Amino acid sequence: MNEAERAFVLKNFSEYYQKAEISVPSIEQREFGIGGFQKKIEARHMGFPNNGALKNYLIGNTPLYISHSIAYYKYPEATPMENKEWGGGDLVFDLDMHAGMFMKKEEIEKVRNDAISLIEQLQADFGIKKEEMTVVFSGGRGFHIHVRSPEYRMLGGDERREIADYLGGIGLDYRKFFGRIDRYKIAGPKRTDWGYRGRLCKLVEKTLQERPQLIHGRLKKEEEAAKLRSCMEDGNWSKTTISDIVERLEEVAEGLKVDTINVDAGVTIDTKRLIRVPNTLHGSTGLAARTLKTLEGFNPYNDAVAFGDEPVKIKAVLDIPEQEFSNKTMEKMKKEEEKEVPKSYAIYLILKGAAVISSRAAYR
Amino acid sequence: MDLLFACKYPFTSEARQAIEENNIEISDFIAEKAVTRVVSALRGESVHANPMHISDQLAEIGSYGAARMMLAFLHNKYLINKFAVAEAKRASSAMGRENAENLRKLQKELGIFPSSFEGKTVVPLPTFLTFSPRAIDYRLINRNVKGGFVEVNSREIIRLMEEAVKTKAEKISPLKDPPESVRKYAAELMKLVPKQVPIPMSFREGDNPPCIEKLLEVAKSHQNLGHQGRWALAVYLINKGMADEKINQVYSNFPDYDERISKYQIKHARDRGYKMPACTMMMSYGLCVADCRVGNPLRWKKR
Prior knowledge:
Number of domains of chain B: 3
Number of helices of chain A: 12
Low-confidence stretches of chain A: 360-364
Shape of chain A: elongated
CATH topology of the largest domain in chain A: DNA primase, PRIM domain
Number of helices of chain B: 14
Strand order of the largest sheet of chain A: 2-1-3-11
Oligomer: heterodimer
Helix content of chain B: 55-70%
Order of helices and strands of chain B: HHHHHHEEHEEHHHHHHH
CATH superfamily of the largest domain in chain A: DNA primase, PRIM domain
Mean pLDDT of chain A: 93
Distance between the termini of chain A: 14 Å
Number of domains of chain A: 3
Strand content of chain A: 15-25%
CATH class of the largest domain in chain A: Alpha Beta
CATH architecture of the largest domain in chain A: Alpha-Beta Complex
């Protein structure tokens, strides 16, 4: 990217910030970091007294990326880190998709569904209220979920890892749900259990109804199946005549992994993490990291577009596939091809390194 | 005021109140008691004082505060952690025999509030995460979790309380200018510190995989380590060809170190020829901290 392109991008970023509504909760306690064309974070330990000051900064100094700490600090600008005096932090989840130049429809859907399940699970298992969560498009290829629940605020990294592992089913071993009470008695999960234990019982029940032979042929007999059901009533798993029942549940237990959500644990466990400021622009896409009321139907290439449709002439530096953008279909472009495209799309391609501004190409 | 309660649980506000109301100052008697308190903590001995006289009870309570002042002055992390572990164990063994009312009082003090949810005894999830020991049975993934609560039994509640006491007891900020008596007895205390003090460890960063570095870091900062962590570390070091004596030196850094037990366990692990647990096992122990994709910690190569 040459000077002219950089200036073009930053001028448009600055104009976006004049109209954007950016509001960081407890802004005076947050550390900020900014990034440019070299690195996503080039400088940190910055602070803003209020959202107005942040907005002025974004208009006047326009960084390519801006992030704030998930943490609350007494002295956000102090260095080294210990001197900031950590006072807790939001619990943050990052869901990401590995993708090419554009995310495919199914990839968007996959990460969106993951985000929906994550929100459901945070409510059901973790008791987090909907109003305590902010769902944000990352501006890149996924979503950030910020949880601002006072109960979870003071958790350290190890504790946060337990949460990420729980969600992702990391280290999940259903055998751990069973224990021997004595030589003959096996204690195991109950139907009324919660979490993965309860889920395992539900899977066993489903298997008994649909494909009992997956566990053992004998379970096709109603009498034998009833015994197994009764094990799940009180957690006494010695009532079945299948002596190696725990081992035989291996295939059924595979089903536990289906509902797990792979959040980026590195983000969740880092209590001093910097995360993109909601509603600011992502410097690798020019898309806005929008705060979302609902995930239903969200498509970043239509719903996170931050610039207008004025035509900009670009030249492709690689082959660019056809893509839906800003609710229109952008035709594919061959390498070296020149074309006028809407400004938002031009900025996306320039930041992705897939195109350059055409006038420059002509002068070179 | 229940002085006996304060004796058993000298970290409570009730104990503090007793000290203030009775104008307890650090006498030679109290200071000596405090020294004994720390020294027995270092030796891993559990002392259960049950004084009958009010003056003895007050001295007993005072010795906790005096010990903390000495530790604050010495500001030795190893001593502080040893002390905290011993205090937590002492309190928890009393809790096991405690009546319901006192238990509730103590829970309030420690910020642990068991309640009933859908017919199960539970604690709030953040409380559970904060105070659960790092052991496989306490991993969230193996627990009954719902609505922001984790199901627990009465034994586990006491275990959480024990950890909370430890956290409370180890929170000691440095004290630069203590009263003369504290200074004097702190010096006395240092003379009595057994010579099985931890041996500094020399591991180069990057020589070992992140999970093992984390375990070594725990040892270095004199924090306790759960059973699986300790076992995995021993097996790793054995497989790396380290001598028992050296491994034992590493283990001497843990605040609940017991030379006899430690030596036995290391020898046992070697005799049994335990294989290093694979990364998947390390994950299920909750010990995996990075995504290095080596399959087994022993396969780690310096990058």
